[in-house]
Amino acid sequence: MTVNIENAGSKTFVTLTGRIDTTNAAQFQADINPLLNADNPDIEIDCTDMEYTSSQGLRIFLILQKSVTMKGGSLVLKNMKPAVKEVFDITGFSSIIRIV
Amino acid sequence: MEYYGLDIRECAILDSYRENRGVYEKLEKIVKETLQKAISDKGLYVTALESRIKTERSLAGKLSIKGSKYSTILDVTDIVGARVITFYNDEVDMISALVDKLYTIDWKNSVDKRKMHELDSFGYNSLHYICSIPKSLYYDPECPMLNEIRFELQMRTALQHVWANMYHDTGYKSGIEVPAEYLRALNRLAGMLELADEQFSNIRASISDYRHRVEALVRGGRLDDVLLDGDSFRSFLEQKPFDKLNEKIARINQAEIVNVSLVPYLKIFKDFRLRTLGDLSRFIQENRDDAYHLALIQLASTDIDIISSSIGIQNLCIVHILKSGTGVSGLVRMFETLGGVNDYNRARAERIMSTASNLEFLNRK
Q: Which of B45, B50, B240, B300 lies at a 20 to 30 A Cα distance from B18?
């Protein structure tokens, strides 16, 4: 799993690659931490190459969503594979996080 | 230094103003901060809280017109002015009660212009208090004058504020006497706005009564007597009608439930033509077992141990659509209503149709 973060103007662009599961959730949390502390609350995550997310991944997305909401920003997950999107759908997380 | 043609006493007052400009600035800041905090602590919401310090030119103008009234700068009570603008009439009274507790009020010079009109006259409506800062609220031993200076606090509704500004702009600021017909038109407007202020307050009170009635009916279980709308749905949600289903679904994988707002589903229920809370209650009873079975199929083979509190209501709606026979198009419509149009909706609907095809309720005769 890799996380690439780029700031461009008023937005932060994140690219996720690979699986988020019990073996690397802590690393994912550490990689995402700078976004929780950043002033810039508008975050767009490209999930084109994200293969899977476990419950731990969902929890981290939830923390990120709460953080941007508190700062008046937005979080958008883009280009999700159908299998990954299904995890968000069957847990009701599609109604918490904006997926386009 | 300019003295605007004032006499010696008026010039001395103007000099005091110049010397104490810093004190006035400090007072303005204290007034704004203490007022803002008191309003916020009380949980009140106002449309604006403004403050200003009278300009030197404006003070000179006042002295040249009414200078004989003033012996010292402390006699001028509106060098620092603040204004609270509220939405509703009764909020003006709430703010005034709060101000009464916060500051020392010079009642002799305070005036309620709302009560000054004759029965058949309309015009400027505002509450003006002349106040000072009590030492118990703020005291700086290096600046005792702060507690001696009086300031003016105006309280009015947004509509009263609009009228006062329009009147100031057209009838007063121009410095030219306005013909009587135009003044009459302005006063006619004042009457209309006074009526509008009263109506807004009445409407708000009626809405508040309606909400209390709905809450009582919901608490009393008289759900068929309550039309489904934003207020009644919120009251219904306070009874946590989806919790049992959510908890049952959560037990599939011993999952944690994350609370989210279910209010967006009101639109879906309107689409389903549910008219009363009674209809909604029956909708839940009729679909809850099938909604659970759908969740069971979706979650049992996974190790996902976190779900949103929207899962129960979401699955209830999905099974209702599947039972109604509108299939993919019905599901797409629901997803679009909740999350907008996007490329995922159709694929998601088709996936659900495929998953649900084995569910008993779809094969029931």
A: B50
Using CB atoms, pick whichever of B264, B311, B347 lies closest to residue A91. Answer: B311
Residue B363: phi, psi to the nearest 5? -105, 5
Chain A positions in Cβ-Cβ contact with residue B342 (cut-off 8 Å): 99-100
Size of interface A-B (CB pairs under 8 A): 63
pTM: 0.67
Distance between CA atoms of B47 and A40, rounded to whole angstroms?
Answer: 29
Classify residue B139 by its DSSP letter: -
H/E element, B86: strand B80-86
Name the H helices within chain B. Answer: 8-19, 21-41, 56-66, 89-102, 158-167, 180-219, 230-238, 243-250, 265-271, 277-299, 311-324, 327-339, 344-356, 360-363
Tokens representing residue B158 in the block: 């947004």
pLDDT at residue B167, rounded to an integer: 83
> Does residue B308 sit in helix, strand or coil?
strand
Tell whether ipTM is more than 0.95: no
